[in-house]
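Self-study notes.
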Amino acid sequence: MRENRDRTPRHDGGYRLLFTHRRMVADLLRGFVREPFVQELDFTTLERVPGSYVSDRLEARAQDVVWRLRWRDRALYVYLVIEFQSTVDRWMALRLLVYVGLLYQDLIRRGQTLEGGRLPPVLPLVLYNGERPWEAAADVGELIAPGPEGLEAYAPRLRYALIDEGRLPDAALEQPENLMAALAALERSAAPLEVAAVVARLVRWL
């Protein structure tokens, strides 16, 4: 019988379920997204939003997990799209460009645009736990071949944030009372079956 040598923990349904809880999402942002705007987000307003959309051509697409929360004390929501990956996907930037476009179409369809008909900002985030380093393009522009001078101004733009759990510094995993740090440390050190058991306990606890 062939032995399965891939010991990478998979982002199964139980793992995704952890990120349907406010505390886990808040700890993910606070502890691992190193951007100044994170400190200005109102985490008491975190709410999950629908993550499955149908395009104008009636093609169904689904995100893994989508949340929104207010920025400062304003009525402006920032949307968070979390994509879970256990393998490197070289087209991830393109996939997220499509996902964000479908999210925007859904907001327009439901009349949830901002004052003046503008759209809310979105943070696309990839949470990766594979063994190989993540080497996929972080910006969709990196997937487009150079063309005639001046044409680059018309190229689509989207960059995503990446959390590569296997390459996080030890200090990031030692953050006190941070559920995401504890989960990442567990994945790095434990066997897959042990990870699944702890994830199940965390789901019950949350």
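Second protein, same conventions, sequence then structure:
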Amino acid sequence: MLKNKKHVFWQAFFLTLLFFFLGIVLGIYLEQTRADDVNIAFYKSEASLYDSLALGRLIEDASVSCQDFQEASVEFADRIFEEARELEQFDESNKLTGSVKIIHRKYDLLRTLLWMNLISAKETCESEINTIVYLYTYDTNEVSIKSEQTVWSRVLSDLKEEEGNEIILIPIAIDQDVSSLKYLIKRYGVEEFPAVVINEKHIINELISSEELREYLD
């Protein structure tokens, strides 16, 4: 009887040890996979950054029509929007939070560059595309702010889905220390956040529906 008890004890011990090491191996694998995904996101952001700079040069090229530039801008805006959404899938509680925030800052810079390019284009082209810039706070723990921003995101996503390529939606976090964005915020007199800037003419702070937002479009 005593031998059987010892046998059962050692079986339980080795099984526990086995599952313990399997857990460690699985954890390392998942962390490495997550790190690989972050690295991919980083290189995507690098490529998009250079693409944005090249897009800005198109404005100066007389052989590029306003229509071509607008189509390129819509495509670029949609692409970096989808790339940035991939970052939101990472759990902010993991060890890679710092890396994700750095990449997020780069995408905020990309979106700011896109906004600047569109502002420059409007000075030389009669643009038929409406630009909607959504300025929000990225790093906040206030429940009320998060709730309001969640609703704003849904409203703007609905509007984008309804209007398609007729609008360019540019969400930009204001707390990522992007100097050029600070200049634009000051230039257009945006003082409260979250805020929606439509065609650099209308600043909306009060939460409204997509139907009401449509009234501000050109």
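Instructor comment on the second fold: Helices lie at 2-58, 66-87, 97-124, 143-163, 179-187, 210-214.
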